[in-house]
Amino acid sequence: NENTNRLLRFWFEKGTDLSRYTKADLKSVQDKLNTRPRPTLDYDTPAQRLAALINQAA
Known about the structure:
Elements: H1 2-8, H2 23-34, H3 46-57
C-alpha cells in the first residue's frame, strides 16, 4: 500500500481532488499501475498475477 501510494504521487499530489479527473484519466493511471512489474511479485505485474489466480481457480 505504501509503495502504491508513492507511485500514485507521480500522477497526483497528496490531497488532490480526484473528482477533477475523468474516468478515462483515472483508468489510464490504473492501467499503468497494474501493468508495472513489481519486485515483490518476482517482476510479474499485478494484472499477470490476477490472471494466473483466475486461471488456477477455473
